[in-house]
Amino acid sequence: MTPVLNLLHADDAMLVFDKPAGLLAVPGRGEDKQDCLSTRAQAAWPDALVVHRLDMATSGLVVMARGIEAQRALSRSFERRQVHKRYVAVVAGTLPNPQPDNGWNTIDLPLLVDWLNRPRSIVHPELGKPSLTRWRLGDGPTPAGGTRLDLEPVTGRSHQLRVHLQAIGHPILGDPLYATPTQQALVPRLLLHALTLEIPHPVTGEPLRFAAPCPF
């Protein structure tokens, strides 16, 4: 049986998938961690190459390149911040928006990989890399005791959204690394989803926009 892939877009230069929560984006260490989005994609498109990743517990949009030139072009777009991503999350507690008309707020806290407790990251004022997240209140159903947010990562640090929200006292519900046991137990998965992605085509430069419906 062929492993399932939720393909949203395919052309000669790029592929876009809607990754389910619980599936690795790339292979991990050990035989039990070889099934992943990139391996499944390469079985169908042998020239498919990784451009960026989503955490295993996060669902939503992932782009892959077809061939090394497309990979280089897409990677440059990420490096130059020409790629715009929006996420949906449900965080613990009530988080009011101090901005009028639900304007965007900013979390500006430097992040560092916690090497002694990998794969966790931490806020570190001296050694952390500059990290910027924008947030506002989102629309849609919200579990009791939670707040739905729209999120935009301006930078792309490891676990950035998850650590930033924990740092302001509102970890994402279901987060196995940064939420309390009670906050984890409230929901069956990490409530974080990569909802939309805007990116220039690696060959034509045409601006493209993709969306993956939020499953929660």
Describe the secondary-structure layout.
Blueprint: E1 7-10, E2 14-19, H1 37-44, E3 48-50, E4 59-66, H2 68-79, E5 84-92, E6 105-108, E7 111-113, E8 121-123, E9 132-137, E10 146-153, H3 160-167, H4 181-185, E11 192-200, E12 207-211
Parallel strand pairs: 4-11
Antiparallel strand pairs: 1-2, 2-4, 3-4, 5-10, 5-11, 6-9, 7-8, 9-10, 11-12
Describe this structure in words.
This protein is α+β, with helices and mostly antiparallel strands and 216 residues long. It is built from four helices and twelve strands. It has helices at 37-44, 68-79, 160-167, 181-185, and strands at residues 7-10, 14-19, 48-50, 59-66, 84-92, 105-108, 111-113, 121-123, 132-137, 146-153, 192-200, 207-211. The strands form two sheets. Strands 1, 2, 3, 4, 5, 6, 9, 10, 11 and 12 form a ten-stranded mixed beta sheet that branches. Strand 3 and strand 4 (59-66) form a beta hairpin. The mean pLDDT is 95.
List keywords for this structure.
216 residues, alpha+beta, ten-stranded mixed beta sheet, two-stranded antiparallel sheet, 4 helices, globular
Please outline what is shown here:
This protein has helices at 37-44, 68-79, 160-167, 181-185; strands spanning 7-10, 14-19, 48-50, 59-66, 84-92, 105-108, 111-113, 121-123, 132-137, 146-153, 192-200, 207-211. It is of the alpha+beta class and 216 residues long.
